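Need tokens for this chain, all 89 residues.
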Amino acid sequence: MEMNAPGATVVSTMGPVGPSEMQITCPSCLAPITTRVEHKPTTKTHLLALALCICLCWCCVCVPYCKDSCQNADHYCPNCNAYLGSYQN
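Here are the structure tokens for all 89 residues:
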């Protein structure tokens, strides 16, 4: 089990989730699985890109959208597609 980063928020339907795949038993279909992680941009991602733009770092504006550490990690069951939780930076 991974430790949460300082300042990170964990939203989950089954317990703490981390920023990467996890091996768990799905609470929906009860199958032993490795979670499917989808990284999605947040308001913080957009604000960071805006700050880079304002600082005239136009060539770096896409970096927050390419780095998984700047986005939420949403966990899903690969069998039943149930939402399992989200790791928010």
